[in-house]
Design brief:
By secondary structure, the protein is α+β, with helices and mostly antiparallel strands. The protein has twelve helices and ten strands. The chain has two domains: about 5-240, Glutamine synthetase/guanido kinase, catalytic domain (Creatine Kinase, Chain A, domain 2, 2-Layer Sandwich), CATH 3.30.590; about 250-335, no CATH class. It has an eight-stranded antiparallel beta sheet with strand order 2-3-4-5-1-8-10-9, with helices on one face. Helix 2 crosses helix 11 (about 310-315), helix 8 packs across helix 9 (about 270-285) and helix 10 (about 295-305) runs antiparallel to helix 12. The longest helix is centred in the C-terminal third of the chain and has 27 residues, at about 220-245. The model has no long low-confidence stretch (mean pLDDT about 95).
Length: about 350
C-alpha cells in the first residue's frame, strides 16, 4: 500500500492532509536551545534505548547519516520541518516507520516533536493515535511537566498540552472568487492561524494553506480537536460553495482548467513553482469531475514527484535546476500516460 501522502482520505477534495504534533521535553535537561552537545547526545541515546519497546515499526535515523536530497524529500512530504533539515548537528535524529505516518523529531526546537500524519480529514482519530503514542513514550521517559501549566516547552506558545493540529487545505475556488481574506479573518477570530504549506513564515503554493490551532494552554486535547474540526468543516463548506459558483460559468471555467492541463501535459520545461500552480487547477478539475483524463492517485503522484528533491530521488541522481525543469515534464507525461 502507498504511504499516506499518496492516498486520498475523507474530504480530500479540500483537505489534503492532517497532522497532530506534540511538543515534549525530557525532565532534567535544559531546553534544546540551552543544551550543550553532551546533553543532546544523552537525549538521543535515551530515545535510542527505548525504540525496541515502542513498537509501531519505528526506526532511529540520525540526520548526519541522511543525504541532503533525502532530507529535503522529507521536508517536501511535510514529515520534517525545513529548519530541522538544515541543522548541522550530530545529535539530531528522527524515529520513522515504514508507512511514514509517524515521525518523531529529536532535538528540534524541543527534545521531542511527536508527529502523526494522515491523508484527508482525520482530526479525531489522529489525535487519539498521537495521545496513545505519547503515553507509551511517557512510560519510558520522564517529561518536563508542571501541575500548574502542563507540559513545559521551549516556546511559551506551546506550553500546556503542547499539541498543534494542522490541516492542509486546497482553496483554489475561494482564491479565484476573492473570498480568501474573509475566510482568513474568520479563522483568526476562532483563535486559529493560517499559513503557507511549510508553516510559519512560508508562502502559499498552489492555493494550499495550513490551518493550525493557537491555544495550547487552559484547554485539553479533545477541545482542541473539536475546535479544529469545527473550523475545518466551515472551510470545506465555503470552498465547495465557491466551486459551485465558479461552475455556473461552465465554459469559461472548464477552459481555464483545461488550459492548465494542456500546458502541464505538453510543456517541455516547467519550473517547480509553475508546475504546482498548474497542478492546483488540474486537481480542482479532477476533483470536480471536469478533467477525466486523470484520477486522484495520479494527481497525488504528480504533486509529490515533481517537487525538486523527490524528482531527483525518483531519477536517482542530482540535477541542476534547468535539468530538473526538463526532467519534470518527462515525468509528468509518464505519470499521465501510465
Amino acid at each position: 500500500m502507498s504511504n499516506w501522502y499518496l492516498q486520498n482520505g475523507k474530504d480530500s477534495d479540500v483537505v489534503i492532509s492532517t497532522r497532530v504534533r506534540l511538543a515534549r521535553n525530557l525532565e532534567g535537561f535544559p531546553f534544546e536551545n540551552e543544551c550543550n552537545n553532551e546533553d543532546k547526545n544523552n537525549i538521543l541515546n535515551k530515545v535510542e534505548e527505548i525504540v525496541p519497546s515502542l513498537g509501531y515499526g519505528l526506526n532511529l535515523l540520525k540526520l548526519k547519516n541522511i543525504d541532503p536530497i533525502s532530507k529535503m524529500s522529507l521536508v517536501e512530504e511535510h514529515i520534517i520541518s525545513p529548519e530541522f533539515a538544515k541543522k548541522d548537528d550530530k545529535s539530531t535524529g528522527i524515529l520513522l516507520n515504514k508507512e511514514e505516518n509517524i515521525c518523531i523529531m529529536i532535538n528540534e526546537e524541543d527534545h521531542l516533536r511527536i508527529q502523526t500524519f494522515s491523508e484527508g480529514s482525520a482530526i479525531e482519530s489522529l489525535t487519539n493515535f498521537a495521545i496513545e503514542l505519547d503515553e507509551k513514550i511517557e512510560k519510558k521517559l520522564s517529561y518536563a511537566f508542571s501541575k500548574k501549566y502542563g507540559f513545559l516547552t521551549a516556546c511559551p506558545t506551546n506550553v500546556g498540552t503542547g499539541m498543534r493540529i494542522s490541516v492542509m487545505v486546497h482553496l483554489p475556488a475561494l482564491s479565484e472568487t476573492g473570498n480568501l481574506n474573509k475566510l482568513f479573518r474568520i479563522i483568526n477570530n476562532f483563535g486559529m492561524s493560517i499559513r503557507g504549506v511549510y508553516g510559519e513564515g512560508s508562502q502559499s503554493m498552489g492555493d494550499m494553506y495550513q490551518i493550525s490551532n493557537n491555544q495550547t494552554l487552559g484547554i485539553n486535547e479533545q477541545e482542541i480537536a473539536k475546535n479544529m474540526q469545527a473550523i475545518t468543516d466551515k472551510v470545506i463548506e465555503q470552498e465547495r460553495i465557491a466551486r459551485k459558483y465558479l461552475g455556473k460559468n461552465k465554459l469559461r471555467f472548464e477552459d481555464k482548467l483545461y488550459r492548465s492541463f494542456g500546458i502541464l501535459k505538453n510543456a517541455r520545461l516547467l519550473s517547480s513553482t509553475e508546475c504546482i500552480n498548474l497542478l492546483s487547477d488540474v486537481k480542482l478539475g479532477t476533483d470536480m469531475g471536469i478533467i477525466r483524463e486523470l484520477d486522484d492517485a495520479k494527481v497525488k503522484k504528480l504533486f509529490l514527484y515533481t517537487k525538486p528533491a523527490n524528482l531527483q530521488k525518483y531519477y536517482g541522481n542530482e540535477m541542476t535546476e534547468s535539468e530538473r525543469d526538463s526532467k519534470r515534464t518527462e515525468l509528468i507525461r509518464q505519470i499521465i500516460s501510465n
